[in-house]
Design goal:
It is globular, with a radius of gyration of 20 Å. It contains 10 helices and 18 strands. Strands 3, 5, 6, 9, 10, 17 and 18 form a 7-stranded mixed β-sheet that branches. Strands 13-12-11-14-15-16 form a 6-stranded parallel β-sheet, sandwiched between helices. Bound molecules: zinc ion (2 copies).
Length: 342
Amino acid sequence: MKAMVLKKICHLAENRLPLELVDLPLPSPQEKEILVKISACGVCHTELDEIEGRTPPPKLPIVLGHQIVGRIEKAGRKAHKFKVGERVGIAWIHSACGKCPFCRAGNENLCDQFAATGRDVNGGYAQYLTVPEDFAYEIPETFSDLEAAPLLCAGAIGYRSLRLTNLQNGENLGLIGFGASAHLVIQLARHKYPRSRVFVYARSGKERDFAKELGAYWAGDIGEPSPEKLNCAIDTTPAWRPIVEALTNLAPGGRLVVNAIRKEELDKEFLLELDYARHLWLEKEIKSVANVTRSDVGEFLSLAAKIPIRPEVQAFKLEEANTALLEIKERKTRGAKVLKID
Ligand SMILES: [Zn+2]
Ligand SMILES: [Zn+2]
């Protein structure tokens, strides 16, 4: 099978072609696994964190990609949950132990044996992959394969982030950064919290215009003071300055949720601007979002179909994965990027 693999950790500034097209043997499903023929795989900022070594894959080479849609080609001997030919989705959570206190309490995203698709095991930048059947999801019919792909991470983790904000209907929500995840979160927020105003902070004018098209009450540059204080905010940027700016804009008791698996180091000195009275006093909170659980993915997919959320996607061929990644690095985004695989 064809696959785009990462063989070596490197910086995109020095190597603009980090992934290499190779031919790999077809994987074979274990007893409780399914073999999926992939038709679409979303491209996520997390792939940059893997390539550049901020969350490095434990073994190389590896096939990246964790927003996967495809059809079941073959089922393992004890895998009976789906039928061959059925369409399924696969997300960042590849598996968790199922036994530890975190898993038992429904927090499998925090399990210390959490394994990630496309980092700890091969992912979706390929024609096929295997996955435990309990970690695959039915995809609602209303979505095409390409539309469904970004729902599996950008959407599901956006859903988790929004839940962790504890936003109440009528309260102000800030979205800092307006990429694949935020363009889905705004649609979700407008449905769930119709009386809330959404304020979007993005560097690019195109992203700000896009946010307004999707119903943002206000859109401005990162660093611009907010016209109103925010009760909650979600940061999806790879940088540090937005954290400080978001805390400035928070109302007393407000909460900032940071949806980024890793932050880059470039502007870290900005944190020295952090002033207790201005940024943290009056019970402001910061919370990170780690991974996703299966219930996040499942709940979000049904809700997304009901609303319905309309993901905006830009398609690339499997061989063009490096181009798609570079465009994310250079923030050339409108909606989500997806590899169309045949
Ligand atoms: Zn992702
Ligand atoms: Zn566990």
